Amino acid sequence: MCSAFERLMREKLKEFSIDDDGQLRGYCESQAEIDVLLTQLKCVGYSYSVRRSTQQPKSSDASRSCPKFFFRLKSGSVDIRFFRYPFSVENAGHRECILGPKYYKEKKGVPVPDHLADHMNPRKRLCVMDTKKSGCPATFSVKCIRVYPGYSIESEGAHPNIKKRVLESLRQALVSPNQPTSFLRFHVVASPVGSHTHTQYRKCQSYCRNIPYASK
Q1: pLDDT recorded at residue 64
Q2: What is the per-residue burial (b if ≥16 Cβ within 10 Å, else e) of 7-25?
Q3: Overall domain count for the chain
Q4: What confidence tens digit (pLDDT) does each residue in 26-63 have?
Q5: Is 56 a domain residue?
Q6: What is the pLDDT of residue 142?
Q7: Alpha helices in the chain (DSSP H)
């Protein structure tokens, strides 16, 4: 029986699959779908914070440098498998569990010499709250790609010259008045639920109580 975490991932991700190492993967068709997934995961106790985000030049902007096109991409935390159509990378984001590793060292107070202690005015100090982070290694990564469905190759093993001709045709279309049809995909790779080393610290947070669990 799968957990609430895995059940949500199965429901929200298209072409959902689990790798040999347990990584959960699939894709959404909009940023709104990603936001809904993250909100519902938070409601069942799995919350993430952005650790790293990168933005690429817009592939539809011909005045900027021409983007790189791929039929398959193995780079970073999210690799994109072959699915016939060429694509370019729009942006990527890497999230870590909100109870993940600590980033900053604890600040230590500067000692005051004994002979000056009686001459210094006492300072008001803020009450420092202890961090909630516990070193959880779980991650949630998203890579947004722009797909061009009007250009394709039949197999990943197609001759390099065929791939070259298809991509050259796409580049020429991008600088023409009539832009080629394209759409976005948001590919997701997430650590399995077993990677979360903490218990569900808040299964239903107060601000999530009014959000339907199975809303779509």
Answers
A1: 47
A2: ebbeebbeeeeeeeeebbb
A3: 1
A4: 999 999 999 999 999 998 888 888 766 566 555 444 43
A5: yes
A6: 93
A7: 4-12, 31-43, 114-117, 160-174
Domain that holds residue 59: 9-101+131-208
Residues 6+ apart with CB under 8 A from 106: none
Position 122 pLDDT exceeds 80: no
Provide the 3-class DSSP secondary structure of residue 164.
helix
For residue 135, which amino acid is it? G
pLDDT at 158 over 90: no
Q: Using an 8 Å Cβ cutoff, are 191 and 139 in contact?
A: yes
In a domain, 118, yes or no: no
From CA 78, how far away is CA 80, in angstroms rounded?
7
Cα separation, 157 vs 189, whole angstroms:
25
Alpha-carbon torsion (98, 13, 80, 32), positive or negative:
negative
Q: What is the tally of helices (H) and strands (E) in the chain? A: 4, 6
Residue 2 belongs to some domain of the structure: no
Q: Look at residue 214 in the predicted model and tell me its pLDDT.
A: 43
Strands (E), 76-175: 87-97, 139-147
Q: Could you read off the pLDDT of 160-207 as tens digits, one per residue?
A: 899 999 999 999 998 888 889 999 999 999 998 888 876 554 443 343
pTM above 0.90, yes or no: no
Q: Which burial class, exposed, middle or buried, applies to 92 when counting CB atoms under 10 A from its CB (0-12, 13-18, 19+)? A: buried
Residue with tokens 């002979």: 115
Give domain status of residue 21, yes or no: yes
Mean pLDDT computed over every residue of the chain? 78
